[in-house]
Specification:
Blueprint (H helix, E strand, L loop, with lengths): L2 H19 L20 H15 L5 H6 L3 H11 L3
């Protein structure tokens, strides 16, 4: 994966997270986690997973869905599914 593709995917992840969680995309950075977004409840979590799956044309396992509480984890899980 080229750096350009990586950066574009990261930008799209942040955009999806910002829209679903109703936060400024600039606040989504290394260390951003569930506790930092008051709107990130269980329903928002399911909407986030669904939006990421739709945006990137991927699917997550139930275990992975449970792990997705930090930006870094979400980014890693998405990037693992993108073509090299």
């Amino acid at each position: 994966m080229t750096e350009e593709v990586y950066l574009e995917a990261e930008r799209r992840i942040k955009q999806v997270m910002a829209e679903v969680l109703e936060v400024d995309p600039g606040t989504i950075r290394e260390g951003f986690q569930r506790e930092e977004a008051s709107s990130w409840d269980s329903m928002a979590h399911l909407r986030l997973v669904s939006a990421l799956e739709e945006t990137f044309g991927i699917r997550f396992t139930m275990r992975e869905v449970g792990e997705m509480e930090r930006f870094e984890t979400i980014r890693r899980l998405v990037m693992e599914r993108l073509p090299a």
